[in-house]
Each structure stands twice: as structure tokens, then as C-alpha cells.
Amino acid sequence: MITVLVAVAIWFMPAPTGVEERAWHLFAIFFGTIIGLILQPLPLGAVVLIGTTATMLTETLSLSEAMAGYMNATVWLIVAAFLFARAFSKTGLGRRIAYFFIRLCGRRTLGLGYALALTDLVLAPGIPSGAARTAGVLFPVVKSLASTYGSEPGPTAARIGTFLMLSAYQVHAVTCAMFLTSMVANPFIANAARETVQIEITWTGWAIAALVPGLISFAIIPYLVFRLTKPEIRETPEAAELARAELLKMGPISRQERVVLGVFVLTFLLWVTGRWSGLEPTVVAFFGLCVLLILGALQWEDVLAERSGWDALIWFGGLVGMATMLNTLGLIPWFSKYVASHVEGWPWLPALGILALVYMYAHYFFASLSAHAAALFVPFLTVAVAVGAPPYFAALTFAFFSSLCVSLTHYGGGPSPVYWGAGYSSIRQWWTVGFVASLVFVIVWMGIGPFWWKALGLF
What we know:
Layout: H1 2-12, H2 21-39, H3 44-57, H4 63-67, H5 73-91, H6 93-105, H7 109-123, H8 130-148, H9 161-178, H10 186-197, H11 203-229, H12 237-250, H13 255-272, H14 274-277, H15 281-294, H16 300-305, H17 307-328, H18 331-343, H19 348-361, H20 369-386, H21 391-404, H22 416-421, H23 427-447, H24 449-455
């Protein structure tokens, strides 16, 4: 009801000078849809489907204009990435990778934190859903390790379980920021940057830009959580034995696991070399998906059963379509000029810094990374460019903080209810660790990141 009232109220407000009526009506529906994504009276896909249908029923957009987002290449890239995730889960390759790293460096508690982090890092490029990586691979392993040392929710949580849960969760924020295909809203962000300020953030470009600040954060976070949580158990030789036993139980790597691993490596290499081969990332993803189907690592029934991927298609495609038309109809350029006229003369660097901090900590009011990015990315990027910030620099800043902000709360994203629901941490402890981690992210990604991006010639 609130969503509808907001949309209707904006609809009947007079359009600002210089904005045509159709653009203003589309903005009313789009803004109402964003409010729906934040409040979530219905699932994300249902909210966006209703908004998209409203644009056609009111004749704000034609059928072809409203459906244009579903022809967007990045929309289908994310669907293909979800199907890669299903292949990792179905074949057990994800669990095998996790236990491999635990056997390799899991004889100490801190080493276990890094083993879980390495697992997330390896899986992130091919599994775009943090919830899928968490529920399908990481969380069962984390819970098993905690139980091995008698660390259960309650009085024994501090033995090792609290550290493992919080470390895995905070590292997840980093891995989501490091790849175009590691968080479901990242392709939306790349597409929005292209439509809003005409810059192209490719899969390779995203990964290289995130490489240095990402690896620095990756190295810091498990140790930081270790120091903040102070686990009682410091030596964990049993964990390595558990991993060895689990790997023996799984047996030799199966043919299907080899297929998934080989296709993933091939797809990764083609993504990295896309600038020279000329192959679009979506084409590469679909090629890999076809190979998985031909070789039997995935069945067509698996494709049909991938609910999360098809849900992402509905909400992602609808949002992309509306956002693109807002730009085409001139509302975004008008907004950019309007803001520029009010902030003329501001130094762009401190202005961007303030905007980035507001963008980051606004996530306290969001329960979804996708809703956060959909609501704030374009307006904040537009304002930053209006004050003179280099478009690529500004886009990267907001793109990475769209993932890093998940660190703040126990309700901030898909993995949050999984790790929080395990019961190993109090709200105070969770929020304290999250806030300290966020300060590290701000220092690393805003303090070191720009020097790396400048060295790469990105601005």
C-alpha cells in the first residue's frame, strides 16, 4: 500500500521544469518500485513485475520499451552465472574445494579463517549469489568445523564458532566486491554506469580494478575478526583431519567435477582475455553453460529448477528496462544538470568522499544489496560526476561499496540470516565487528584503491 501511495503521489505532482510528463510518470512508477524493493511486501521479482506491468498499463512505456531490459546482455549473464553455481553445488565440487583448503592451512584457528576465505574467493567468480555460496557450500562446512570443537550456540560459542561465522561473513563482503559475477546486483551496477555516464566496466576491468584493494582487505579481515572475537581455541589439528576424512569419503574427483572445473577455468580465461578475443562475457557464459549441458554436468531439469536465477531475470530485467528509459527520456541528464547547478565550485574529491561514506552507511536502512544499489547507485553517481569527479573513479567507488556495505548488519544481505541465524554472536558483537570492518574497507578502498586505479589509467 505504501508503495502504491508513493507512486501515485509522485505521479500527480507537477513535473519539474524541463522534464517531460512521460519521464516524470516513469519516475513515479520506478521510485514506487524501489520503495517496494526496500519494504519487500512481496518478493523482489513480484514487485518489479508489477512495476513493469504498470508502465505498460498506464501507457508510460510501450511493450517493446518495457521489455527492452530483458534483452540486455548483463541480465542473461547473471542467469548463466546462477546455473554455474548449481553445477558447483550439484557435483560437490564446491565442498571439495573447501575441504582442500582446510586440509592445506587449517591446523590453526586463524588458518581455518583463511581456508574458508580462500574457498569463497575461488567460488565467487562463478557463483553470483552470496546466499547460494553460503547455504550451498560454506555454511555447512563452517558449522561442521565449529561442532568438531564442541562450539555450539550459547556458552561454548566463543571457543571457535563465533570467529568462524563472523570471519566467513565479513570476507563475503570482500569477495562480492571483487568480481562482476560475484554479487547479483553487480551487473546491474555496470549496466547503470554505462547508461548513466557512458563508461564501460567489463568483467576484466572490474576484476583488475578490485585486485589490489580486494587482496589487501582479504588479507586483513580474518586476522581482524580473530583479534576482535578472541577465540578460545587457537590450535586446530583436528580440522585438517576432518577435512582429510571428508575428502576420503567423497572419493576421487568425479568426471562431472572435472567437467565443471574445466569449464569454469576455460570460462574464466575467456572472460579475462575478452578484450583481445572480442567475445562478450555473456556469450562466454552461455558457451560454458552449453558445454556443461552437452557433457552432462547439468541436466535441462537443473536449468528449469534454478528458481533464483529466473527470479533474478525478472527483477533485474525490469529494473534495467525502466532505468534505461529514464535516461533515454532525459530525466537522468536533467537531474545531473540540476545538481551541477547547485554544487558548482565544490572540490570533487571531498565531495566524492562524503558521498561514498553516506552511500556506505546508508545500508543500515537496507536489508538487500540489490535494493540498495537499485535505489542509490545512479543518483549518487550522477551527483558525483556533476561535482567534477572522474566518471570511472566515481563509478568504481560506488560499485565496490555496493558490496562492502553488507558487512555492517545482521540483516544486510542474503548470507546474513544464515550466519546470524546460527546463533553464535550477539547483535552488539556482530555490529561492532561489522563497523570496524567497514572502517578498514573505507581506508583500503578509498585510500589505496584510487592510487591503483590511477596506475591502471582508469581515470
